Structures are given as C-alpha cells and as structure tokens.
Amino acid sequence: TGKGVCKCRVCECFPNFTGSACDCSLDTLPCMASNGQICNGRGTCECGTCNCTDPKFQGPTCEMCQTCLGVCAEHKDCVQCRAFDKGEKKATCSQECMHFNMTRVESRDKLPQPGQPDPLSHCKEKDVDDCWFYFTYSVNSNGEANVHVVE
C-alpha cells in the first residue's frame, strides 16, 4: 500500500506504520480531540482511528455524546451571571465562571456566524426570569473559550 516494501513476501513497514500489510498507521494525529487529548480521553487510538471505550461517547475522536449536557446548557449559568449579573451562579461567578472571554453584542445578527475556523455553538437559553437570551460559544486553536452574548 506504499507504506512499506515487500521483501521475500513479508512487508517491511516504513516508520509510523505497522501490521502485516503495513496498513496500520501509528500516527495519533487523527485521534486528537479538540481539547488536545487522544480520543478525548475516552478511548484508545488504534491504527489512526479512535476506539471509544466510554459507551456514551462516539465519533472519530470520541467527542460526540448524545446524552451529555450540551455546550449551551453547560455554560448557561456562567454566561448569565457574567453578562446579566443574575442566575444560579451569581454568588460564585468570579470563582466559577472566568474560564471564557466574553464579548457583548447588540443583536443576534452581530453574533459570530458558522463558517469561521473555530467550532461554534449557537445557544438560546432561558434565564431565571423565564426570558430567552442568546449567546455563542467557541474554542479557538489556542484552547481559549470565547463567548459572544446579546445584551
């Protein structure tokens, strides 16, 4: 397969390849999750593909979880206290909710739109007063989380 040479009907694999047909890549880059962990810390990298060992997680890097709290729900309380000074984490906001950069925007059409290089989640959540508020959550290549919230 171009990843080794055949000598006396036995494959001698080039570096980074193994297996009887040299078809198993030892490169772990395809298994790297967005948080910098191999298979999101929830699987093993076998031949350049993640084998997810945590049954809740699937996908090429074991990052997809149907039953987990979504990014929006997970960050809702922190966005609420940082942007509007209310909600369940109001009292602990400065300790618990400083893990993202926050930018206020005037309206929903000023929020970052899909198509930018960083993975982006558009969120619509209810606040403690039963009003909707809108925000986006993205993580850049340096691992910094950025939130844009509509005032």
TrEMBL record:
<keyword id="KW-0325">Glycoprotein</keyword>
<dbReference type="InterPro" id="IPR036349">
    <property type="entry name" value="Integrin_bsu_tail_dom_sf"/>
</dbReference>
<dbReference type="Pfam" id="PF07965">
    <property type="entry name" value="Integrin_B_tail"/>
</dbReference>
<dbReference type="InterPro" id="IPR012896">
    <property type="entry name" value="Integrin_bsu_tail"/>
</dbReference>
<dbReference type="InterPro" id="IPR013111">
    <property type="entry name" value="EGF_extracell"/>
</dbReference>
<keyword id="KW-0677">Repeat</keyword>
<keyword id="KW-0732">Signal</keyword>
<dbReference type="GO" id="GO:0019960">
    <property type="term" value="F:C-X3-C chemokine binding"/>
</dbReference>
<keyword id="KW-0812">Transmembrane</keyword>
<dbReference type="GO" id="GO:0019901">
    <property type="term" value="F:protein kinase binding"/>
</dbReference>
<feature type="domain" description="Integrin beta subunit tail">
    <location>
        <begin position="72"/>
        <end position="151"/>
    </location>
</feature>
<dbReference type="InterPro" id="IPR015812">
    <property type="entry name" value="Integrin_bsu"/>
</dbReference>
<keyword id="KW-1015">Disulfide bond</keyword>
<dbReference type="GO" id="GO:0001968">
    <property type="term" value="F:fibronectin binding"/>
</dbReference>
<keyword id="KW-0245">EGF-like domain</keyword>
<dbReference type="GO" id="GO:0005178">
    <property type="term" value="F:integrin binding"/>
</dbReference>
<dbReference type="GO" id="GO:0016477">
    <property type="term" value="P:cell migration"/>
</dbReference>
<dbReference type="GO" id="GO:0098639">
    <property type="term" value="F:collagen binding involved in cell-matrix adhesion"/>
</dbReference>
<protein>
    <submittedName>
        <fullName>ITB1 protein</fullName>
    </submittedName>
</protein>
<dbReference type="GO" id="GO:0033627">
    <property type="term" value="P:cell adhesion mediated by integrin"/>
</dbReference>
<dbReference type="InterPro" id="IPR057243">
    <property type="entry name" value="Integrin_I-EGF_CS"/>
</dbReference>
<dbReference type="GO" id="GO:0008305">
    <property type="term" value="C:integrin complex"/>
</dbReference>
<dbReference type="GO" id="GO:0043236">
    <property type="term" value="F:laminin binding"/>
</dbReference>
<dbReference type="GO" id="GO:0098609">
    <property type="term" value="P:cell-cell adhesion"/>
</dbReference>
<dbReference type="GO" id="GO:0005925">
    <property type="term" value="C:focal adhesion"/>
</dbReference>
<dbReference type="Pfam" id="PF07974">
    <property type="entry name" value="EGF_2"/>
</dbReference>
<dbReference type="GO" id="GO:0045202">
    <property type="term" value="C:synapse"/>
</dbReference>
<keyword id="KW-0472">Membrane</keyword>
<dbReference type="GO" id="GO:0009986">
    <property type="term" value="C:cell surface"/>
</dbReference>
<dbReference type="GO" id="GO:0007229">
    <property type="term" value="P:integrin-mediated signaling pathway"/>
</dbReference>
<keyword id="KW-1133">Transmembrane helix</keyword>
